[in-house]
Specification:
The mean pLDDT is 88. Helix 3 (41-62) packs antiparallel against helix 5 (86-104), helix 8 packs across helix 12 and helix 11 packs antiparallel against helix 12. The chain has 15 helices and five strands. The longest helix is centred in the last third of the chain and has 27 residues, at 255-281. The protein has two domains: 6-281, Orthogonal Bundle (Fic-like fold), CATH 1.10.3290; 298-345, Arc Repressor Mutant, subunit A, CATH 1.10.10. The strands form two sheets. Strands 3-5-4 form a three-stranded antiparallel sheet. Strands 1-2 form a two-stranded antiparallel ribbon. The radius of gyration is 21 Å and the shape is globular. It is mainly alpha-helical.
Length: 346
């Protein structure tokens, strides 16, 4: 059962001073986002395309699903090329669900049937049967340095899953708790129920994006929340572990996970959003965004020539200007001198 919403558990949780500060700060960032949307529509469109690529790549890579060629990844995500193997099939499915959320978020009713539909679409290019609740019990494990599996959490049994998901959605819709408290609570309960045989992590990230859209926090359209999760993966899993302990007995503590969700993932996205809009606006708009997007697609270590090859319509002097600005902002480091110097994405 959804332990974070039963018996007014969420309403009776003590909210830390740090969490209250985060909620206020995120409200301020949301207001600025509306201003940027009016002032810089072309810039935001460029950021949006880059975010879709990063989100699809990162969320799948967390689960070990990869496409090694950046050009091929872009063909699948942006140009909607037909997938040719299992990894590409899973990436194409994630692309489709992500585009549905970005394009139709205001029209999507948040129900357990929607979750089944999204899961079906996530696996629609594969032989995996998507869109059905798990039919056998599963467990959340980790593999230690010695190769031994260790149980981290035992999710809800399969026979209770359909009713648990129905109740979770019913209680979430009825809850009058602050949305920025209710959303991470829903995600924690979803992951503790672990309702599917496969794809639970990716579904949790997609549902997070959709719920944030419904609450008016749309930064995930422009900055990849999944990329932030990938970059902070150890903290992500540790926060989930801490908040899931005692969940079955309703003795769990939501604070570690809530502070990660709001303070690490969402706040980092808004700060990155401000940085990107500022950089792009100071670097002649869309061309600056094109360079930044290329840097994000390249391997972690690259050269100016690599960036130039990705941006044939941008002059080399402009590319250097944007890369220097990224370096000065602490997002790049250069090793060596001259045209063959190595640049490292931080």
């Amino acid at each position: 059962m959804p332990k974070s919403f039963e018996s007014d558990y969420l309403k009776n949780q003590l909210v830390s001073h740090e969490t209250l500060k985060l909620i206020r700060l995120l409200g301020e960032f949301r207001g600025k986002e509306d201003l940027y949307r009016i002032q810089s529509p072309q810039t935001l469109e460029t950021l949006k395309q880059n975010a879709v690529i990063q989100s699809t790549e990162s969320s799948n890579r967390i689960e070990g699903v990869t496409v090694s060629n950046p050009k091929r990844l872009k063909e699948i995500v942006v140009n909607r090329a037909e997938p040719s193997n299992r990894s590409e099939q899973e990436i194409a499915g994630y692309r489709d669900v992500l585009n549905t959320i970005h394009g139709q978020n205001s029209d999507i009713p948040f129900t357990s049937n929607l979750v089944l539909q999204m899961h079906r679409d996530l696996f629609k290019y594969t032989t995996e049967q998507g869109g059905v609740w798990k039919n056998s019990d599963n467990s959340i494990t980790e593999v230690g340095p010695d190769g031994q599996k260790k149980l981290r959490f035992q999710p809800t049994p399969a026979w209770q899953t359909p009713a648990s998901m129905q109740e979770l959605h019913s209680l979430y819709r009825e809850s009058d708790a602050e949305r920025l408290l209710a959303i991470p609570a829903y995600v924690l309960d979803f992951l503790c129920i672990h309702p599917f045989r496969d794809g639970n992590g990716r579904m949790a990230r997609l549902l997070s994006l959709l719920m944030l859209y419904h609450a008016g926090f749309t930064v995930g359209r422009y900055i990849s929340l999944e990329k932030i999760v990938e970059d902070t993966k150890e903290t992500y899993y540790e926060a989930l572990y801490k908040s899931s302990q005692g969940w079955h007995e309703q003795k769990h503590n939501l604070t570690p996970w809530t502070e990660y969700f709001l303070g690490v993932m969402l706040l980092s996205a808004y700060r990155e959003f401000e940085n990107r809009v500022g950089l792009v606006e100071n670097s002649k708009g869309a061309k600056g965004a094109m360079v930044v997007a290329a840097i994000q697609r390249l391997p972690r270590s690259f050269t100016i020539a690599d960036v130039a090859a990705q941006c044939p319509t941008v002059g080399i002097d402009h590319i250097r200007k944007v890369m220097r600005a990224e370096r000065d902002a602490g997002r790049l480091r250069v090793e060596g001198r001259g045209p063959n110097a190595s640049w490292l994405r931080l």
